[in-house]
Each structure stands twice: as structure tokens, then as C-alpha cells.
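Quick one, T. Sequence first:
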Amino acid sequence: MLSNLIIPAMFDLPNWEDMGDVQFFWLKVAVVVTFVLLLSVILAFLILADRKIWAAAQMRRGPNVVGPFGLLQSFADLFKFVFKEIIIPAGSDKALFILAPIISLTMAFLAWGVIPVAPGWVISDINVGILYVLAISSLGVYGIIIGGWASNSKYPFLGALRSAAQMVSYEVSIGFIIVTVLLVVGSLNLTDIVVAQGHGFWNWHAFYLTSPKALLIAPVMFYMFILFFISALAETNRPPFDLPEAESELVAGYQVEYSSTPYLLFMFGEYLNITLMCAMTTILFLGGWYAPIDIGVQFVPPVLWFVAKCGFVFFMFAMVKAIVPRYRYDQLMRLGWKVFLPTSLLAVMWVSAWVVFIRGGAV
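C-alpha cells:
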């Protein structure tokens, strides 16, 4: 694990097996704090990239004043939000109003605890990593619901209800899509899922051309890859599925009454969930940290391959935001329940039949 190898070497500490409980505890705290700070810095530049991509699609310059080429724009926005006054509506539930964005941000960070970014580079390599990510990401909706209800205003409450219905609807299809990958791999461990896709892009679950027998499910797995990407857009309230914060209908949805630091926490948590979905797409379908072609020698560090793939998926998220018009809410629900759910369920049935009767492996 990352904490077992890197941190002791950096600070000349004994091996983790020789540490006392107190020393081991503070080592884990140092790992978590380092990871949170590093992820926060990466996220700041991803937010800038999102704005730059959107600007380029509209033939604008985008942020280009603060720092060289506008690279410090996100940090300027951070200071602006932090030093603004926190305004709490008089009729709101003040404790829940403040608690809601904290819940959203905390759940977003917790989900990253089991994400492997390179061999051994994971905070907690648990055997049920997929279940952990699904459970924690499902809890994130409570922050949005509480924020919309505690604001004591109609628009935030409508936005919160929309978000709850939308996230529950697409979590069902995401669950079935993930089951197809689990059937092929035979493990709930995220590291095992990545390892199963090594030695070339033809082993990636998005293509899955490992053998002539695999041709029977290769189109299904590619379809699952597309469905997962679209469902991730809906799960993270990204355009064209940003109905919970549709500015033409609900002003800003569940964030209407929020400003200053609480609004920053909501936005930060939203982008953390977006990057989490990029990482999950990379792990489940794009081979994780493995190079597209295995030549026996890794010239590029595995972590850079992982970051590059996540960056590509994030670029696709940003392009969809720039070029696809927003769906109506009835279209959004119909897509989730009448298209994604039945087809993902059929895919689970087909892949499980392939695993048992054609490949000859146990489910």
C-alpha cells in the first residue's frame, strides 16, 4: 500500500509492521491528509480545464488573467469564496443548512479511500471496494436533500427532490452495469479488476477481445461502457442531466440559498464526484494504470497512465457539457427506467450465461 512504502521511506520511519499503534495511526493520518491535499490541487486545475474546454467550444478565451495563462484562477476563486460572508436565511434550519454541504464533501472524499491509482497506491485495498464505493456515493445524495429542505424555500426543495429521484434512478442501472464487469472478473476488489485488464487494450472491458469466445460479449461490454459513461453524467448532475440546478427553471436548484464557503463545499463535492466517476470508468473499462500496448517495459509510470485516462474521460464530460442540450425531466426519467435499466439487466443475463456456459468459469 501507499502508506506502507512511500511515507516510511520519506521520513526514515521503521517498517509499518514494526510500528506501534500510535505511530501507525499518525502515519495513516499523514497519508490521508497528503492524499486530500493532492486531490484538492488536482481538482483545482480540473475545474480550470472544464472552463477552458467550454470556452474553446464557444470560441472564447476562458480564464486567462490570474496567473500565467489563467492557471491560478481556481485558487483566486477559492479565496473569494472563503472570505465572503456566510449568509443563512432567517427561516432556514441553521444547523442542517450548514451540515448539508459538509456531508456532500465528506462523502465525496470518503469514496476515494479505495481507489487504486497505481500498483499498491491505494489507501485501503479492501476486497469489497466496489460495494464500498456504491454505498458511500449513495449517501452523498443526503447532503443535497438536506440542503434543499433546510433552505426553507420552494426552488431548493424542488431541486433536492429532482436530485434524489435522478440519482436513485441511475444508480440502479450503474449497479447492473458494474455487475457485468464483476461477472467477467470474478472479484469485487478494484485492484483485481484492473489487473484483469493488463497486457494490452484488447483486454480492457470496454473492448474485451481476449479470445474468439469473447467476441460474443465484446459488443455488450462496449455498450455497457457507453451506458456507464452516460449514467455517470446523470449520477453527478452534469449537463445534459443537470436538472436539479436548472437555472432556467429553478434559479440554481438546491444551491439557491447558498453562498460563500457552503456553496464552495457543494461545488467542490460535485467535482470530486465527477472525478470519482472518471476514475471508476478508467478502472472498470479502460484498464486502470496499464498502457494501451504492453511492450514488456513501462517507460511511463503507471500512475501517469491512470491520470491520463481519467483526464480523457473528464475531457469527454466537459465536451458533453459544451455541445449537448439539456434534457427535459420526463426524458431523463424515461431514459433511465425504460432504456438503461432493461438493457443493463439483459446484459447481466447474457454475460452471466456466457461466463457459465461458454467460457466455462464459475460466477
